[in-house]
Write a structure and sequence with these properties.
The protein is built from 5 helices and 2 strands, in the order H-E-H-H-E-H-H. The chain has 107 residues and is mainly alpha-helical. It has a two-stranded parallel ribbon with strand order 1-2.
Amino acid sequence: GNKRITEETTTAQVVFDIVIPLSKPTMSCFADLLPDDGAEDYDGPGARQPQTLMSHWWNNSFLKLARAIAQDASNTEDIYSFRSFTASQRQKRYWLCIWGVNQHIYI
């Protein structure tokens, strides 16, 4: 079923409850499931050249991580205002191991 991400949901829970189940059919990293957006720096299924590495703690709130990315991209922690970000803010790309590492192999 659908999993709801709340303030209490940890990054580890997102990986175990969402990332691993969704990527299980292909046994790949989650980023490989992302569609080709036609970007110039597209390197294959889901792959985009990251500009920034975001570090995280597995037991921290996933929404805090999302807010840190929003803050870096747009100077706002409002993750729900993504549509109001400028085009250049929306084009910023981040490396997160939870998306780019094949969790079926390493966990």
